[in-house]
TrEMBL record:
Organism expressing this protein natively: Ziziphus jujuba
One Pfam match: DcpS_C
Example of a GO MF term: nucleotide binding
HIT domain sequence ranges: 12-124
Keyword Nucleotide-binding carried by entry: yes
UniProt motif Histidine triad motif: location: 105-109
Active site: 109
Stated name of the protein: Bifunctional adenosine 5'-phosphosulfate phosphorylase/adenylylsulfatase HINT4
Length: 152
């Protein structure tokens, strides 16, 4: 993947990733950016997205490149929540699966629980192939070298 990342001009997350909006970034590197969810479901609710436009979790493949990307997204999300919500007793990391994703640009939800308000937990139920997919489950599914276990 040489050259500039692929972006879509009509994608709000591509605009955020390319720093074309006023969104405050909590983290940024050449592969990913992180920012606060505009409609938080917990005291701390961050999104970690790839700079490159990847439509949904279903576009992630069992390759070392995709595994490394998702693992990096998760590590950054964990670092941000440990830094900003150390008092939280539970964290949640995962992806909405189509048709329940709100934006067609891959994004990892990073939540420091409890949910606020409590009913928002409904958006994050794991319902098999339709619900919320835990990041750890996605990493298991796409690990190209199952004998190598993720640090997270």
């Amino acid at each position: 993947m040489a050259g500039a990342p692929v972006l879509q001009s009509d994608c709000i997350f591509c605009k955020i990733a390319s720093k074309s909006t006023s969104t405050t970034l909590l983290y940024s590197d050449e592969k990913i950016v992180a920012f606060q969810d505009i409609n938080p479901a917990a005291d701390r609710h961050y999104l970690v997205i790839p700079v490159e436009h990847i439509p949904t979790v279903r576009d992630i493949q069992k390759t070392s490149e995709d595994y490394t990307l998702v693992n990096h997204m998760l590590e950054v999300g964990q670092m941000l929540l440990r830094r900003d919500a150390p008092q939280s007793l539970q964290y949640r990391f995962g992806f909405h699966q189509p048709p329940f994703n709100s934006v067609n640009h891959l994004h990892l939800h990073c939540l420091a629980l409890p949910y606020t308000p409590r009913w928002k937990h409904l958006k994050f139920l794991s319902l098999g192939s339709l619900g919320f997919l835990e990041a750890s489950k996605l990493l298991e599914k796409i690990n190209p070298s199952p004998h190598i276990v993720s640090k997270v």
